[in-house]
Amino acid sequence: MGKRTARRAAMTDTDALHAFPLFELELGEGSPETGFTLGIADIPPTPAPQCEQPARIGREIAADEPPLLDDAEFCERTVMALHERGELGYVKPSDEWVNQRGVPLNDEHQEAAARLHAAGRLPGYDGEDDAEPEGADPKPDPAELAELEGLVNVEPVDAEDLLVDHDIVIEHSALEGTLLIGSRKGDGVYDALKNAGYGWRWWRTAEESGYPAGTLFLPGSRDKAPRLSTIDHTEQIIAKVAEEQGQEIKVAVHIDGTPRDQALVIADRRVRAAERAEALDAKAGRRAGAAEGRWRIAHDISRRWEGGQPIIMDHHSTRKALRDRERMDNHMRKSVALEKEARLVAERAEGARRTLANLDNPLLMARWLREAEAELRAIERGLNGSKGRRFLGTDGKTVISQEPDNKPATGRRRQQLLLDLMYLIPRMEHARAELAKAVTEGRWWGGDPKQIRPGDFVLIRGQWDLVEKVNPKTIRVISIYMPTGLTYPHLEIRGHRTAEEHEAIRTATLAEAKGANA
What we know:
The protein is an alpha+beta fold. It has 12 helices and 16 strands.
């Protein structure tokens, strides 16, 4: 028996609160009777619990001793102990049970509280105060509001035309991302932006794309909403540089935040990933070839000693022998460095190929979609405002604590949220369409985890495993490769069978194999 289970068995219902793993536990040496003491950080110390049962650590359990509590029953008793002490609360928006400090319970105790609530042992929660108030403003149309601000559907302007009357142009488009055009070496702009930490970098191939030499770009800004705060701060930095140099630097800003069609975006990403992989493969080949050449030169130099002739000091050949040894050493070192660089570049090329392959990976799409849904909720809360979280007692009415309400965003912040929304919604629609296509093609399960019951079988990572428990976001299975169960997120499920279906398929497979071997 593990120490943790033995400690749980030695506690009463009241003492269970002090072992509740919501807080940071501090284990002491304890008394000879219990073998341990428990204390909770940030909470006034309490006497060590006097266990009514004898300690069960390091000895056999007698037949007349009371049975141990399983994890589920222990969690339920812990939740009830919190409830009886008036230290259990419920947060409606996030559907979470919390303690008296507003800290959410862990997954096991969340499930225990849900079971107790369903059984009627915990008070209900009607949540009428969280209803949408009458007369609330409808959700704004992001396209219309963003167009009013002059951030979308902007007429294209050539940067060279803007440079006639301005020294520097900052422009953004979905196709090229955020660019800074007009900076020159030694003008102090790049050094100031580099130290500011916004990520501006030299675009080495700007001339190949039709832009002037010295153009800067923000990595990862293609097909993304423009970062208005970064652009505004960049203007301020350039103005500060001009003030320090005692000259005037005219800056023009041209932003077109109109998103492109997702089909074009994905097609461009495929092309860029393929081109990147090809270019890195060529670079890795050049580095490997140079490393081989350096090694051959060192090997040729070493032939003068292949017969075992040592370097004879104070001989007429000493100076040349020492020079050859130094040359050989230098070539060998450069060969090793070039070979190491070739391996690193080859790994980068493999990463580009993985990026290309992951564009069609339904698991990554589902993971991104889950994160995007959370981001969408955050954007809507920012645009429409939201009520501050309330931590209620178990009666559903007593307010333990109240956070201030969040007002709707205004000004530049509102513009940024609208642009983020315009880019996010099409990507989410495209991801859902691709997942539906993957379900049709059999590359994705797409079922409802709520239909899975303990005792069923699920396909996870190529193996059909027995379901032990189904949680709201994870599933616990019994694997033949592990002595204990394994927990996976629902996104890992690739198939589902009931126990009867699995047994029927297993029986048919065994019969077919037996017939083939007969």
